[in-house]
């Protein structure tokens, strides 16, 4: 889950954000024996048995198998991967769009598990837990003063749906300890970060990944915004690394007319499978803008390509990642899995947007998007290398290109904030959320009953948080000077305060006012 702040869902760590690595995939294949019966593959079985029974030292042959599988996958393409059991369980949960827990976003502040914010309508919120509360014990397990890693914290708070846990809480605002019993429940992991109106008639929806629930979340958001008067749509797919291909197709279906081609795939036997838009979608009329950047990949590119190639909308931003391979998952009995590339996908005009890769050079492949800093592509559209041989035409005669990502119709340079990319990326990191939590924690009562309008007015009138943030960076070993970027720092700090106080939509409502891509759209 991509966080422009310090929000950490209870059982999901940042390491699970594997969208670009995993990419789009199809339903799981049936259980398959990894080692088929032929002489060369039996050789591997015999070798592992030989090591297991005769090697002079005790050795874990499971680890040998894992190394062998990893080595084998590296001979293929960058998106054919082996996922060990621990990562597979987390990823499956992440992509399912829900988890079982107590429902809090937390931050390990000093030696205590501090609640940033209870999840709305979750068990903790219903039981009366508040932002700023410290969880000292889960049943009899001590959680403070031990510097526990996140996985230990997760396991202490996780459990079966309906199971009961007694939490011992220290409530700083009241200076007292309290015990609260609650029952764990299913907590949704939203893939739609925000849904709001930029103008009275223009809707904005931010999708962070394509999980099992994404189409349903999108549909609910569109319906609500249409009822509020929205007749045009901005769909933000920036930094969305992909996920379930069928979810991206389902959203494209809502935007395209019946019978329009959404995407097609080809396997190694050149078998082609085409997917068309079906019955009337929920947003077939009205302007559509898709926002992409160098980290938009896979399912995001399927959706953007379908809209661009059908002349349905305008793609705004920078060239996307360039991932045009489809994986199928095969699960193993130990909980691990392999995701194997089984096909290439093509946009409706016939474009393959898969960028080149060389076997055995995965690091260079995934760092290619970063290298666009050096080529100048993130700042000038003319720096994008386009091959005439990969030129295609849309039904209305617009020129589009294949060969490495979706090239936007309207280019918007990296919002480098006066040339300091380090500050720009820092302001989208978790450290901002940590700082804001600590500032709020000093005196939460000062924000009690403050309306959003009053909050904005107060934040606009002071720079004290910018000054404190620079001190905070220095104390945490980040000697980064804010310098002439004070305006952007203040904007992101204000947005993060709004998120922790009022909710996700308020975070985006503040940031989008100065967003370069949004400004470009509003000028159209």
UniProtKB/TrEMBL annotation:
<dbReference type="Pfam" id="PF13180">
    <property type="entry name" value="PDZ_2"/>
</dbReference>
<protein>
    <submittedName>
        <fullName>Peptidase S41</fullName>
    </submittedName>
</protein>
<dbReference type="Pfam" id="PF03572">
    <property type="entry name" value="Peptidase_S41"/>
</dbReference>
<dbReference type="GO" id="GO:0007165">
    <property type="term" value="P:signal transduction"/>
</dbReference>
<dbReference type="InterPro" id="IPR036034">
    <property type="entry name" value="PDZ_sf"/>
</dbReference>
<dbReference type="InterPro" id="IPR001478">
    <property type="entry name" value="PDZ"/>
</dbReference>
<dbReference type="InterPro" id="IPR005151">
    <property type="entry name" value="Tail-specific_protease"/>
</dbReference>
<keyword id="KW-0720">Serine protease</keyword>
<dbReference type="InterPro" id="IPR004447">
    <property type="entry name" value="Peptidase_S41A"/>
</dbReference>
<feature type="transmembrane region" description="Helical">
    <location>
        <begin position="7"/>
        <end position="26"/>
    </location>
</feature>
<keyword id="KW-0378">Hydrolase</keyword>
<dbReference type="GO" id="GO:0008236">
    <property type="term" value="F:serine-type peptidase activity"/>
</dbReference>
<dbReference type="InterPro" id="IPR029045">
    <property type="entry name" value="ClpP/crotonase-like_dom_sf"/>
</dbReference>
<keyword id="KW-1133">Transmembrane helix</keyword>
<dbReference type="GO" id="GO:0030288">
    <property type="term" value="C:outer membrane-bounded periplasmic space"/>
</dbReference>
<comment type="similarity">
    <text>Belongs to the peptidase S41A family.</text>
</comment>
<dbReference type="GO" id="GO:0004175">
    <property type="term" value="F:endopeptidase activity"/>
</dbReference>
<keyword id="KW-0645">Protease</keyword>
<keyword id="KW-0812">Transmembrane</keyword>
<feature type="domain" description="PDZ">
    <location>
        <begin position="88"/>
        <end position="160"/>
    </location>
</feature>
<dbReference type="GO" id="GO:0006508">
    <property type="term" value="P:proteolysis"/>
</dbReference>
<keyword id="KW-0472">Membrane</keyword>
């Amino acid at each position: 889950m991509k966080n422009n702040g310090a929000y950490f869902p209870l059982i999901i760590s940042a390491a699970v954000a594997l969208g670009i690595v995993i990419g789009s995939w199809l339903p799981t294949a049936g259980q398959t024996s990894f080692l088929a019966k032929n002489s060369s593959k039996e050789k591997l079985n015999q070798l592992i048995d030989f090591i297991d029974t005769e090697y002079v030292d005790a050795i874990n042959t499971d680890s040998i198998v894992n190394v062998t599988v990893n080595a084998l996958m590296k001979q293929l393409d960058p998106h054919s991967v082996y996922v060990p059991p621990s990562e597979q369980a987390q990823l499956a949960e992440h992509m399912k769009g829900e988890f079982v827990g107590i429902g809090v976003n937390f931050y390990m502040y000093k030696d205590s598990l501090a609640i940033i914010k209870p999840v709305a309508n979750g068990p903790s919120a219903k039981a009366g837990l508040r932002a700023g509360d410290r969880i000292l014990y889960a049943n009899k397990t001590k959680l403070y003063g031990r510097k526990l890693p996140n996985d230990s914290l997760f396991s202490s708070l996780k459990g079966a749906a309906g199971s009961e846990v007694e939490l011992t809480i220290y409530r700083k605002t009241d200076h007292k300890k309290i015990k609260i019993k609650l029952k764990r429940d299913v907590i949704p992991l939203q893939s739609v970060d925000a849904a709001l109106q930029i103008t009275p008639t223009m809707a904005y929806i931010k999708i962070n990944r394509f999980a099992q629930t994404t189409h349903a979340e999108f549909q609910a958001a569109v319906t609500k915004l249409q009822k509020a008067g929205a007749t045009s749509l901005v769909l933000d797919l920036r930094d969305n690394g992909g996920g379930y291909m069928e979810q991206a197709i389902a959203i494209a279906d809502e935007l395209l007319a019946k019978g329009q081609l959404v995407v097609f795939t080809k396997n190694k036997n050149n078998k082609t499978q085409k997917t068309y838009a079906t019955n009337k979608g929920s947003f077939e009329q009205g302007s559509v803008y898709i926002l992409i950047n160098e980290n938009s990949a896979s399912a995001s590119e399927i959706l953007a390509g379908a809209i661009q190639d059908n002349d349905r909308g305008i793609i705004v931003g920078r060239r996307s990642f360039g991932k045009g391979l489809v994986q199928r998952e095969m699960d193993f009995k130990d909980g691990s899995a392999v995701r194997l590339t089984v096909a290439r996908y093509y946009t409706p005009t016939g474009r393959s947007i898969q960028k080149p890769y060389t076997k055995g050079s995965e690091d260079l492949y995934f760092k290619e998007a970063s290298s666009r800093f050096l080529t100048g592509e993130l700042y000038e559209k003319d720096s994008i290398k386009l091959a005439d041989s990969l030129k295609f035409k849309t039904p209305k005669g617009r020129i589009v290109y294949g060969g490495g990502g979706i090239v936007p119709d309207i280019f918007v340079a990296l919002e480098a904030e006066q040339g300091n990319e380090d500050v720009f990326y820092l302001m989208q990191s978790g450290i901002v959320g940590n700082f804001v939590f600590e500032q709020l924690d000093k005196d939460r009562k000062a924000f009690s009953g403050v309306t959003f309008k009053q909050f904005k007015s107060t934040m606009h009138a002071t720079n004290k948080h910018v000054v404190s943030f620079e001190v905070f960076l220095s104390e945490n070993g980040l000697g980064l000077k804010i310098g002439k970027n004070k305006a952007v720092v203040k904007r992101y700090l204000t947005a993060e305060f709004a998120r922790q106080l009022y909710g996700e939509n308020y975070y985006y409502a503040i940031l989008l006012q100065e967003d370069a891509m949004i400004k470009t759209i509003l000028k159209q």
